[in-house]
Write a structure and sequence with these properties.
Order of helices and strands: HEEEHEEHEEEHHHE
Catalytic activity: uridine(38/39/40) in tRNA = pseudouridine(38/39/40) in tRNA
Family: Belongs to the tRNA pseudouridine synthase TruA family.
Keywords: Isomerase, tRNA processing
Radius of gyration: 19 Å
GO molecular function, one term: RNA binding
CATH topology of the largest domain: Alpha-Beta Plaits
Structural class: alpha+beta
Largest sheet: 7 strands, mixed
Mean pLDDT: 93
Distance between the termini: 13 Å
Number of helices: 6
InterPro entries: PsdUridine_synth_cat_dom_sf, PsdUridine_synth_TruA, PsdUridine_synth_TruA_a/b_dom, PsdUridine_synth_TruA_C, TruA/RsuA/RluB/E/F_N
Number of strands: 9
CATH superfamily of the largest domain: Pseudouridine synthase I, catalytic domain, C-terminal subdomain
Number of domains: 2
Helix content: 10-25%
Strand content: 15-25%
Low-confidence stretches: 250-254
């Protein structure tokens, strides 16, 4: 898991602090490699400011180390905004990215009148009243296989914009005065979740028709989806692999992960 506030995203970039570069440095330090010979492969990229509750990576470590010793050793060297939750030794055939069958994202939207300075790095902000019934009706239009061209930012590196969303929910967290969205699908493209949430809060506030998402599928025009909500509210909640039940996550197949 990591707090994405001070990372320039997951993927390594020259002269930028990223999750991949920090992990690579620490893993090679543990292996006593003067150069970063051990590469880290993630389940996918997260953008600058996006958080992860359960990102998955794999790497090929040159020595045999017990799983718990690896976890504790890495955590002792990692910065405070990262933590290794679990380590497993898996087969050499396992790949953290190419074996993914689905992902679940969480988005938190603070509903206060003004932006809370203590939540600004961990939530989006929407000060307008929303009708939860309208949002839930619109969420039904997201479920299924659709062409999400209108919901993808320019720069997306993908051959097709067709994706399947298995589950889309929203509820109000009364204690924290937040709208909480969850999306589970077979894959999500560049800024897709943040654009979908932007459309949904506009529907909830009455500035879009309830079923405007159906129109956006047809027009295939990113500009008509308008806003992209802040990265701060987005969390990678879970990564699913083949054979894993979304309701009862099981262990991944038996590479050092």
């Amino acid at each position: 898991m990591y707090d994405g506030t001070n990372f320039a995203g997951f993927q390594r970039q020259p002269d930028r602090r990223t999750v991949e570069s920090v992990l690579t440095q620490v893993i090679n330090k543990m292996a006593k490699n003067p150069d970063p010979k051990i590469l880290v492969y993630g389940s996918g990229r997260t953008d600058a400011g996006v958080h992860a509750l359960a990102q998955v990576v794999h790497f090929d470590f040159p020595f045999t180390i017990p799983e718990e010793s690896m976890r504790k050793g890495l955590n002792s060297m990692l910065p405070m905004d990262m933590e290794i939750r679990r380590v497993e030794i898996v087969p050499a055939t396992f790949h953290a990215r190419y074996d993914v069958s689905g992902k679940r994202y969480l988005y938190r939207m603070d509903m206060g009148e003004f932006r809370n300075p203590f939540k600004r790095n961990y939530t989006g902000h929407w000060k307008f009243p929303v009708d939860l019934d309208k949002i839930n009706q619109a969420l039904g239009d997201l479920v299924g296989e659709h062409d999400f061209t209108s919901f993808v930012a320019s720069g997306a590196q993908t051959r097709t914009f067709v994706r399947t969303i298995y589950e889309a929910t929203c509820h109000i967290d009364e204690a924290n005065h937040e709208l909480v969205f969850e999306f589970y699908g077979n894959g999500f493209m560049y800024n897709q979740v943040r654009i979908m949430v932007g459309v949904l809060v506009e529907i909830g506030s009455g500035t879009r028709p309830v079923h405007d998402i159906l129109r956006l599928y047809q027009v295939k025009d990113r500009k008509q989806a308008r806003r992209t909500v802040p990265a701060a509210g987005l969390y990678l909640k879970h990564v699913y692999y083949q054979g894993e039940d979304p309701e009862h996550p099981t262990k991944l197949p038996q590479r050092q992960r």
